[in-house]
Amino acid sequence: MMSNSAGGDSDLKSSPLSELTHTLSRRYQHILDKSTPHVLHRWIGFSVLVFIYALRVYFVQGFYIVTYGLGIYILQLFLAFLSPQVDPELQDGPSLPTRGSEEFRPFVRRLPEFKFWYSLTRAFCIAFMLTFFSMFDVPVFWPILLFYWLVLFVSTMKRQIMHMIKYRYVPFTFGKRKYTGKKATVVDDATSSRP
């Protein structure tokens, strides 16, 4: 009896479906990687997606539960986007600088901007796809959902803003800090007196 112990014959070949899946995932990841530096273009594309979703919900006159769930998810992502990576309440080591004389440390988010954009875009795409299935169109009185979401938004943002004030951090930075130094005084030779 001969055993097939040679490595070449016992290797399993991947199926065409797994190869196609692998190729598509690599191309998708390549597109995501190329879109990373184009922040403005990504957010413009996201705005177009939100507009299309809003039009779909408006013309169908339904899917308010899907939209409410989407709103709760957006709120959860936004809070993670505004929060520091390490919560100052739970940290025993070095903290965010509180005085001007302390070392400048940039704000590091719990949820980076790219992941925030990606999660929002994916959520809107999923919600858009759900609007094509009638089983997700649960009849509800939408003003109650809107009012409850607004109360939830105001209360959580108030708590987040109080946290920002207490630990003195601002989650938004505009450009790199530049040291300007002391301005030199200019002495005019014509006005200086010479003996």
From TrEMBL:
Location(s) in or outside the cell: Membrane
Similarity comment text for this entry: Belongs to the RER1 family.
Keyword Cell membrane: no
UniProt keyword list: Membrane, Transmembrane, Transmembrane helix
UniProt protein name: Protein RER1
Function: Involved in the retrieval of endoplasmic reticulum membrane proteins from the early Golgi compartment.
Ubl conjugation as UniProt keyword: no
Topology of this chain in the membrane: Multi-pass membrane protein
Predominant location: membrane
Gene Ontology BP terms: protein retention in ER lumen; retrograde vesicle-mediated transport, Golgi to endoplasmic reticulum
InterPro entries: Rer1 (IPR004932)
